[in-house]
Design a protein that fits this description.
CATH topology: Growth Hormone, Chain: A
Strand content: under 5%
CATH superfamily: MFS general substrate transporter like domains
Helix content: over 70%
Structural class: mainly alpha
CATH architecture: Up-down Bundle
Radius of gyration: 21 Å
Strand order of the largest sheet: 1-2
Amino acid sequence: MKFADLKINEKKIFGLHLLYSIIEGILFGVVALNEFVFIKSLKGSQMQLAILFQASVIVFVFTVVIHELLKRYKKKTILRMTALITRLPMLLIIVFPRELLPAKDMVFYHYFFLVIFLCYYLAMPIVYPIINSILKNNYSHSHFGKLYSYAAMTNKIVMMITTFVFGWMLDADPFLFVYIYPVIGVLGIFSLFLLSFAVKVDYLQTCEKILSMRESLRKSFRDMKAIIKFNKPYRDFELGFMLYGFSFMLTVAIITLFLVEKLGLNYTSLAFYKNSYNLIAILLLPFFGSLIDRIDPRKFAAFTFFTLLMYLFFMGLTEYYPYYFDIGAYRFYYLVVISFAWNGLFAATMSLLWNIGSAYFCKDDDAGAYQSVHLSMVGIRAMIAPLFGIWLYQYIGFSGVFALGVLLLILSITVMFWSLRRDRLFI
């Protein structure tokens, strides 16, 4: 694919998408160390750490309601209001203390931090379906995966640089986040205002009849039920994704605790591991962006789930073979390095599968509805898995949780191959 081969509108939307991805890369680079800031700088508890992650995904429970609201208001207006409501609260972090206070005095700031980032994460179930719809309606099918992968690759480059700089800054002063978070809050507002210019057609401009909210919600749930009932390949895809999602959510907070409490890594080392897998993802995104356009998404999903399986497997082995060497401020655990190499493959494939995978099971006009089903499932498992993971860890330790995560991933891969043998995908 050559840039000159793109249509004028594709070039315009790609330019906006690329600039949006750059700015969001800065946000993601800072937020990538959120859990470590919470545990290392603010000394939050294990359960609060699980709640912090849970806040980032449980918001998707409201996706169906949000999908209906998107039909009632112009997407440009929604994006701009979302920018103000979800990103402005980050400016309040400027009032946080510049040093660690006695434990009882920090409790307020722990919950204040959680509330601020719950607001921040509320943007995701609103923004992601809109992005999916914008891209699906502006990119041709043959260019969809490639253009998305180029924007995602750029996003990860910026994220990687930002994570490295932020980690280095936090090692110099663990409370510098007090100044950094307000800055990225302002950038986040700008990025969503920018994205609003990519909206091509609003629902209100199509002259379609808008039902009452109650009727619309009933219709949405009926449509969701119909999608799951009659689109068997997509139903199997979501079943496999549900098993994968439980594995991921059970282990994500446990991995943070493992790296900080078990391995004792500093911010600089943590930033290195974060960047190492992002670098691998950056290099591989164009290839996987082209691949996802050419193969069944269920086969792509099976490989993606396998990469996470290997990530968890080698991370778990580190507890029994904790061998490492130091170079300056960096500490390299041999098996953790291998683990994060697999995580790089996972990041490259999952960034495509999670964001646009559902679009391959439907027609262009149904992309928003299918993504809403997909994101609602994310919210449902988020209600249980993160806190359950911490509870399990307290009883069966790191190895037990990692082993359960691997087992769930084996089941998810099995579902994908079973589905491939049973039903072909026709769109």
